[in-house]
Every structure is written in structure tokens, then in C-alpha cells.
Predict the 3D structure of the following.
Amino acid sequence: MNDMLVLKHISEKYQDKTGEVEALKDINLSIRRGEFISIVGPSGCGKSTLLSIISGLLKPTSGEIYIAGEPINGISDKVGYMLQKDNLLEWRTIYKNVILGLEIRHMLTKENIAYVTELLKTYGLFEFKDKYPAQLSGGMRQRAALIRTLATRPKLLLLDEAFSALDYQTRLAVSQDVYQILKKENQTSVMVSHDIPEAISMADRVVVLTRRPGMVKSIYETTFDMEEREPLKTRKMPEFSTYFNTIWSDLDVHL
Ligand SMILES: Nc1ncnc2c1ncn2[C@@H]1O[C@H](COP(=O)(O)OP(=O)(O)OP(=O)(O)O)[C@@H](O)[C@H]1O
Ligand SMILES: [Mg+2]
């Protein structure tokens, strides 16, 4: 089987003081190994809820999740999660930060340390390994957070608005950077983003959710007539505006 993630009939209903909130309804989705998926949808439609369910932090009210063919019940070691804040620990050096996930999981083997060192070298952070997070730029911090997440070799990487705390220019550069890292590592990834251009430029497929309760409204395979895809360059391609207009109209935003 070539699917890394399979979601079958995922629904979620929250209970709160005022009653029941139906967040997600019958989500079905399969993601291939090495694929990069973006999820877009109106605010509050259940995107973060879906990532929490995939990570095993939240139990779905109904439905099943499989990662690499195995059912997920509860928090899974197979998943790496990156949020908006990089959550680097300010009192630890960059090196101590990037090995944190390995340390917590008692996975500090020679082999894993060599892998982290290689990641730091390949992605330009090796010379900064003894610096503290405050001494790095926003883009470099985000790269360090990514290396920390990749260090445990998750089968699946989840990104929830991971770049939205960055200024616009850094954000463009980081999306290009992250895309190239993830493709090189053949990392299967699911990214939630409010930013439609960011989603189109990075994703192999863009999944559009409806208003709450979130259901899959449409899925677009984004292909560009270029030899090697570069997120920044896709923005200048004629196909780009077609995808943008279609997705924008699917989102049904009332101005
Ligand atoms: N713990 C909770 N208890 C009750 N309702 C919740 C809880 N968490 C989320 N919700 C509700 O479920 C819905 C989906 O929330 P979620 O955070 O998944 O949406 P989202 O698509 O990520 O939103 P945003 O685009 O603003 O990040 C919202 O209406 C939210 O208020
Ligand atoms: Mg959210």
C-alpha cells in the first residue's frame, strides 16, 4: 500500500456549556508517501481539529485513522507536529533544542545524532549550533524547529499555520526553504494554512473544506509547467491564478 495516511469517515463533535459543536463531518482522505497536502478552509471549520485527530491528541467521535497501514489510537510516535510558534527553548542552544525530541523519546543513538548533525549541515545551521534561539533570525528559528521535528523521523509531518508568526518576506523565503527540505527528505506532510497562495505554491494537492462542520468540498492537484518546482516561481505561472480563483470561489467568502 502506498498511502501514508488514510482517514475514513472522520467526524468530531465537541461538547461545551451551550451544547454540541459539530466540528468535522465525514472526512475521507488518503495521502500518498512523500506527498505534500495543504488544507484550506474558512476560519473555525475544523482544520486544527483535524490535525489534532491525525496526531492522536484528540479522539474522533467516529471514524478511523491509519498511518503507514496501522490504525492510530492515541498519541503516535509516527507523527511530528509543528505549530505557529516555534517553541524553541530559549535557555537551550540550537543543538540542545534540535535533539530535544530525541532526548525525550530516549532515542539519542549515535545514528540519530549523526542524522541531526547532517540535517544541521545540509540546512545551514551547523555553524549556529552553539548559539541560543534569540541570536537567530525568525527564518532560522523556524528551520531549527523543523530540524528538531524531522530528527525523530516522523512518518507524517503536520504543520498548523506554521509560518504565520513570520513577517511576509521571511515567510516567503521560509516556505521555499521548508518545501525544498521536505521534498529532499521525501517527507509526507499535511499543512493547514490560511494563506491560499502559500497552499497552492507548496502543495501537491490542496484540500478545500466547507464551513463548519468541515467536510471535504474539493481537492485540486496543483501542477505547474516547470522542470523543478520552486514555490516562489509557481506564483508567477499562469496556472497559479487559475487555481487561486477556483479555490477562492470554493471558499465562498462573503465580503
Ligand atoms: N475544545 C473545544 N471545545 C468546544 N469547541 C471547540 C473546541 N475546540 C474547537 N472548538 C470549535 O470547533 C470548531 C473548529 O475549531 P478549529 O480550531 O478546529 O477550527 P480551525 O479551522 O482550525 O479555525 P482557524 O481557522 O480559526 O484556526 C470551532 O467552531 C471551535 O470553536
Ligand atoms: Mg486552526
Notes: Residues 145 and 178 are 11 Å apart (CA to CA). DSSP finds nine helices and ten strands in the chain. The longest strand covers residues 3-16. The first helix runs from residue 47 to 55.
